[in-house]
Amino acid sequence: MRSIDDMISGRNAPIAPGGDPNGFVLADLDRAECRFPVGAGGGVRFCGATVERWAPGFQHGCYCAHHRSYLRGQPSVQDEELV
After folding, report:
1. Beta pairing partners, 37
2. Which pTM does this prediction carry?
């Protein structure tokens, strides 16, 4: 079971194919680039892959296809027992 710390720090986050395992800082992302947290250590970084269906405000609306697929069937953080 993932803790919130694991999810945010990206220790369990899969990297999108061709993605940078070090990720990007939020300030470096353009519109329609994946906001899924990746990269352990050194602060939270984000995937940065292209988001085909950009839909901020909707569940997983700011994630690339790879991370949307990964999250299908995963329990939400709210549903998990917090460690």
Report:
1. 46
2. 0.72
Residue type, 35: R
Rounded Cα gap, residues 24 and 47, in angstroms:
7
CB 43 within 8 A of CB 15: no
Looking up tokens 């220790």, which residue turns up?
11
pLDDT of residue 28: 93
Contact 66, 77 (CB under 8 A): no
For residues 70 and 14, is the Cβ–Cβ distance under 8 A?
Answer: yes
Residues of the chain with pLDDT below 50 are 10, 82-83
Q: What is the pLDDT of residue 27?
A: 93
Rounded to 5°, the CA angle 4-46-79 comes to 25
Kind plus residue range of the DSSP H or E element containing 7 = helix 4-9
